[in-house]
Amino acid sequence: xxxxxxxxxxxxxxxxxxxxxxxxxxxxxxxxxxxxxxxxxxxxxxxxxxxxxxxxxxxxxxxxxxxxxxxxxxxxxxxxxxxxxxxxxxxxxxxxxxxxxxxxxxxxxxxxxxxxxxxxxxxxxxxxxxxxxxxxxxxxxxxxxxxxxxxxxxxxxxxxxxxxxxxxxxxxxxxxxxxxxxxxxxxxxxxxxxxxxxxxxxxxxxxxxxxxxxxxxxxxxxxxxxxxxxxxxxxxxxxxxxxxxxxxxxxxxxxxxxxxxxxxxxxxxxxxxxxxxxxxxxxxxxxxxxxxxxxxxxxxxxxxxxxxxxxxxxxxxxxxxxxxxxxxxxxxx
Length: 333
Fold this sequence. Notes:
With 333 residues, this protein is α+β, with helices and mostly antiparallel strands. The chain is built from 12 helices and 13 strands. The protein has helices at residues 9-19, 22-28, 33-39, 65-76, 90-93, 101-104, 173-177, 180-200, 202-207, 229-241, 296-303, 312-320; strands at 44-48, 113-118, 130-137, 141-149, 151-154, 165-166, 213-218, 223-228, 249-250, 253-254, 259-270, 275-287, 326-330. Strands 1, 2, 3, 4, 5, 6, 7, 8, 11, 12 and 13 form an 11-stranded mixed sheet that branches. A two-stranded antiparallel ribbon has the order 9-10. The longest helix has 21 residues, at 180-200. The radius of gyration is 22 Å and the shape is elongated. The model is unreliable at 51-65, 69-88, 90-95 and 158-169 (pLDDT under 50). InterPro entries: AUF1-like, F-box_dom.
């Protein structure tokens, strides 16, 4: 008997959980009947949707960023197969092309924690601008935190201090209105991207009822969608009833409900690192009518918990939280 055969199944499964990568686990299924059985019992998985094929020349000819997102996404998962009841040839597994993440993971039986990595961000911004957002979903949007800026420049003569430095002037109403359209477009773009990712995961959430956490992010770290166990349960129950308008779709995304936006803005924001952010904006989005204590600090801190310290975004949100809060409302779309 091979020495590896003496290792108990729970230990092998724990090793496979450390691997996590779905492509690798699918390849493991062709090793032996035992691996074929155990690989699908991994409960912590990473699904990278762009690891087989890259973008093609035709991708650059697509006008719509959302259409480009989906076409690249579907091309990227070419080569991954749902599992079979018996070991399959590796080449066979990697040359068929399921159309959704749910099909790729159909044979995995015990998924509890799943992280999905997309090929890239899908918010179209002007050159030099950047956006970072995190959205939480249940049956629909629960909250979204967005931070964006038009450009970032390094000021080598800026004094380094222990805290971020904001321009001392108080922003007037006219200054806030100037550029408001751009900030609203940033917000809408982020919400559309988030609702597109939520829609993409719908079958996964319905099929894997033991899943406790789902994270959908892009490789560049632009945006993240999170669903916890309670949010996924809420989605399944609403879907099962089939009579709730909150699950309506527009094209290939979930409808964004009417929301209340808490927006803070700084025309120029100097950080302790010497980086100056132009038109820095922080937006906290919550559905209209949802009971809330408007504690933006707690929500923002949680959303960017991993971006503190010397990180530019962590510094920016800390400084922007000290700015005046402007409340706007937006209809469902």
